[in-house]
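This protein record is not my work; I was only asked to verify it. The record follows directly below this note.
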Amino acid sequence: MPRPDLFRSVFGRVMLSSLLVSLLSTLALFLVVRNIVAADGRAMLAREVDTDLAGLADIHVSGGTAELRARIADRMAVEREDGERGWYLLVDGAGRRLAGNLDRWPAIAPEVSEARFVPLPGGDTMFARATRLGGDTRLLVGRSNYRGEALLARLAMAFAGAGAVIALLSLAAGHFAARRLRRRVETVNAAFAAVRAGRITARAPGAGENDELAELAANTNAMLDQVERLIEAQRAVSDQTAHEIRTPLMHLDTRILKAMQGTQDEALLRTLDQSRGEIRNVVRLLDSLLDIAGTQAMRGDLRGLLDTNLSEIADNLADLYGASAEELGIGFHARIAPGVMLRADPMQMTRLLSNLLDNAFKYVPSGGTVSLTLSAGPHIVVQDDGPGIPAADRDRVFERYIRLDGAQGGGHGLGLSLARAIAQRHELSLHVEDAAPGARFVVRPEDDG
């Protein structure tokens, strides 16, 4: 099974989640620190502006408007060492500027001595407070916030760099942890894949550690132990059942044969012969059921499989069925590619092919045609031009005891069930298609489209 991509993998999602949490945590911390720094900077500006405003108000009270204008001019002439700039505006009741370096009164209310950040014409901002002096005279004092804005910019850069480092560390740590977890989960998946491939004794490592994945490995191994015990028990029961039922039936057949040898009654002989036929029929039914059950139990089990030349098996069967076809008046054609190999049980593959051919000959009337095709893959096709199989019955024909109308001769309806069980044991699929006319049975690898 291919690995899921990053966003579908649980380990990828864990890694991305840890990255997202680290980035969100860094962003939240930045916002908190930024608000604290901005609040402290605003408080410092407010203290400085309030102190300056209070001093100018005292000058106005003691020296009047002329003195106040002189002191404002003195303050504007001073260059501050910290690079900050002071802003002043003194207007009369008509709104005419009396002093200061602002051209117009900003949107700030002097009646309530409002203090806040206001925009400057050049796009910068200042923190200002306005108040009303005696009469209708209004005074505004402001300070630029170059230091605060620069500090916030440096803070943003610092957190951006720190966030990048944290993101890289989170990715590295998440990738390392995800790889380690993936390896441990893959060992469990590998154990299941090995069991499915036939290595029933495979187990998941890491069960001795002390975490959730170790518990998963331990539970996996316990489950596989149970599966192995059940498979062995099923095989033992099948073998014992076959022996316990077949033996008394064969003994009964022997006693009937002895009874036939000791009588000359024609009617009794016919009855006894019919009884022997029914006994053999029951034995064949029992063998078929056990074969199907045993084959299904060995699905994916590679034990006992050999590198098998399917071409040789198909050639031998083609010779055998070709002779029978001539006697039945049926046309038989075989197209068999040489050297088609498969790791398989030779006897079971022989039974699979012979069951499909038997089924084809059973439903094809005299004058009809049956063909056998084998190509690399392997791909096996058995086709006839008989009455075909209705679409509603194309899955049912592989069930046990299903016999469609029109079959020539007897049977228990188990041949196709056994053929599919054999195919599945060898990781092959078997299905039937409409041959228009007739039916086409196709065997191919399970992983083919």
